[in-house]
Amino acid sequence: MKINDVNRGIHKNKKLKRVGRGIGSGHGKTSGRGHKGQGQLAGWTSHPAFEGGQFPVSRRVPKRGFNNKFAVVVKAVNLGELDEAFDAGEQVTIEALAERGVAKGRFDVLKVLGDGELTKKLKISAHRFSQSALTKIEGAGGEAIVLPGKAPVVKGERRTKKKTTG
Fold it and tell me: Has this prediction a pTM greater than 0.90?
């Protein structure tokens, strides 16, 4: 390749296709629209998914399930995992969990579950705690700190309380 070949074939201002200028131009008479059919009419444009009457691919592909892009992603961590990963007296934070590979990936909310045994006194910071996890943490002499952020959902509690008039 030579330096003068670098920009060959690249044009800043591409000329428009001139249609309807006689048979000698190659784009005369029907001006590239063909004979008959809806495409010959002025102002007609096809839908981007139109496939010329063929059954469209968007209708051929099966649709399954539901994807909620607004859903809160909750990462669950068991007390047994925390007991193995941390020493007694340590503070368990989201950053510390990520460093030790306990809570991997992207998530909005961290929830501590009560699966496994907790034998060490730990200070655990999370958005949510299960009832069994809270009792086991307090039983081991540890502390559970609820982090602000996404609203913690407490099982059995209603989000909005209706006023009764009577």
Answer: no
Q: Using DSSP bridges, classify how beta strands 143-146 and 91-92 pair: parallel, antiparallel or unpaired.
A: unpaired
Q: How far apart are CA 134 and CA 145, in angstroms?
A: 10
DSSP states of 132-161: HHHHHHHHTT-EEEEPSSSPPPPTT--SSP
Instruction: Give me the domains of the chain, ranges plus CATH numbers.
Output: 74-146 (3.100.10.10)
pLDDT in tens, the chain (166 residues): 788 888 888 888 888 899 999 999 999 999 989 898 888 888 888 888 888 889 999 999 998 888 888 888 899 999 999 999 999 999 999 999 999 999 988 888 999 999 999 999 999 999 999 999 999 999 999 999 999 876 545 555 554 545 555 4
